[in-house]
Amino acid sequence: MTKSRWRMSVVRACAAAGLVLCIGAAAAAQTAPAPATAAETKTTWYFYTVKWGSQDEFLDLFQKNHYPLLKAQQQAGRFASVRTWVPQYHGDGRADWTFVVELVSREGAAEGPTEQELIARMYPDQATFRKEERRRFELLVAHWDVPLNPVDLDTRKPGM
Predict the structure, then answer these.
(1) Model-level pTM?
(2) d(C-alpha 149, C-alpha 79), whole Å
(3) Which of 3, 66, 99, 129 lies at 20 to 30 Å from 45 by C-alpha?
(4) What is the chain's pLDDT, residue by residue, as a tens digit (160 residues)?
(5) 3-state helix, strand, coil in the chain (%, to 5)
């Protein structure tokens, strides 16, 4: 291993350890989420681990079938934002996730069409839609959702 690769591995390991500590501390400090008001939002990160060599196919299917559905829900007022990321690097311990979606939902948003109603309207060829969605999930090694609860460290009392 070259010196620069070794340094990069150490930097990534330290960053990952720091993130784990921060998340653990926040989770331990958080006893219960505050009740949401109509003006509040709720952020959830949806993590995906795609099989090696299948990232482009997964992204193609996600972009064709699921992303338009999320954007339609955003236009209907359910989501304040929809953003996606891939990690800059792979390998050297970066096997935990390969694609993430951040959905910021509007708490108390007016009811709009359900996801199933949107799917029926947006994808008239239901057989193809179901086949492609099934394939998208076949490409996954893992998938998990992480709803986030904010911790206001400016107002939080230590030990609470």
Answers:
(1) 0.70
(2) 17
(3) 129
(4) 444 443 344 334 434 434 333 344 444 444 444 544 445 899 999 999 999 999 999 999 999 999 999 999 999 999 999 999 998 876 655 558 899 999 999 887 767 889 999 999 999 999 999 999 999 999 999 999 999 998 999 999 988 6
(5) 45, 20, 35
